[in-house]
Design a protein that fits this description.
The chain has helices at 5-16, 18-25, 75-88, 128-140, 146-154, 165-178, 182-196, 202-212, 216-243, 248-255, 259-268, and strands spanning 32-35, 52-56, 61-67, 92-98, 108-111, 114-117, 119-122. The chain is an alpha/beta fold and 270 residues long. The strands form two sheets. A five-stranded mixed sheet has the order 1-2-3-4-7, with helices on both faces. The chain has a two-stranded antiparallel sheet with strand order 5-6. It is elongated.
């Protein structure tokens, strides 16, 4: 199973938005066909589950590993991949995503006749300022791509030499709150709480929780208030028309009020 909150959130993102995750990782030559079982009971090291594995359209297996610390050697991944390829009789391609302060890690293992290689992706090598500016432009233009979810989720963990961590986090929160779609905003608010909770102060957490509270119930109350205001205005117009001697049927057509409402107003005038 996933080892911490970062693993859990990334596993959810990659599984939910599969091809978008490939584009975000720069793997433009791969397309996912289906998820495959990752339970390997015969693997007796650290844990018996891979993070994620998929079969691709090209017939190979794509194995994801999510790391928050530097992997000192690759024997664990080699063992997983050996079992995968033996079980499914397909070649395996392993992607290791480092999501914390790791900029270098082993990517190959030479063990006699065994030559093993993985592809490392370093989140800390990405430019937070450039990512934030791109996301702000996408929201301004109302163009929100699936890959933007990954950028917004992980921009606080990217490289930001010209910005403080507080500034990066603040702009990330502002972007999250500004997402117009309720479902998307709630999704990203929850992801940020899971990924960056330790870096958030109480005010930050409250902002995200308030975003999560924008449920259908709140919107329904707001809509009902708007309808009530419109009804009050319509009744005022109807009363004025009746005072002027306009007949009931004409007032109904003009105000869209029910007949009984207009007749009630008429009785109140006498």
């Amino acid at each position: 199973m996933a080892r911490n909150a970062v693993d859990i959130v990334l596993k959810y993102l990659v599984d939910a938005f599969r091809d978008a995750s490939l584009d975000w990782l720069g793997l433009h030559d791969v397309r996912i066909l289906r998820a495959i079982a990752t339970e390997l009971p015969e693997v007796e090291i650290r844990h018996s589950f891979l993070d994620l594995a998929f079969e691709t359209e090209s017939g190979e297996l794509l194995h994801y590993e999510f790391q928050t610390t530097k992997e000192q050697d690759l024997y664990r991944f080699l063992l997983y991949d050996a079992h995968l390829t033996a079980h499914y009789k397909k070649p395996v391609r392993t992607i290791v995503l480092y999501v914390r302060d790791v900029l270098e890690a082993p990517d190959q293992l030479k063990a006699g006749g065994i030559q093993y290689r993985v592809q490392n992706v370093y989140l800390k090598a990405r430019d937070a300022k450039a990512v934030l500016e791109r996301l702000e432009e996408h929201l301004r233009l109302n163009v929100w791509r699936p890959e933007d979810r990954f950028d917004l989720a992980f921009v606080p963990h990217m490289h930001h030499p010209r910005m403080s961590s507080r500034e990066v986090l603040q702009r990330t929160l502002d972007l999250t709150i500004a997402i117009p779609d309720d479902i998307e905003r709630n999704l990203m608010a929850g992801i940020l709480l899971g990924l960056s909770g330790k870096a958030l102060n109480e005010a930050d957490i409250q902002r995200l929780k308030e975003a999560l509270k924008m449920t259908d119930l709140v919107k329904a109350i707001e809509q009902e208030a708007a309808r009530e205001a419109a009804k009050i205005k319509a009744r005022e117009i109807a009363r004025n028309l009746l005072v002027e001697g306009i007949d009931v049927e004409t007032v109904i057509r003009a105000t869209k009020l029910e007949k009984w409402e207009v007749e009630e107003l008429q009785r109140q005038l006498h």
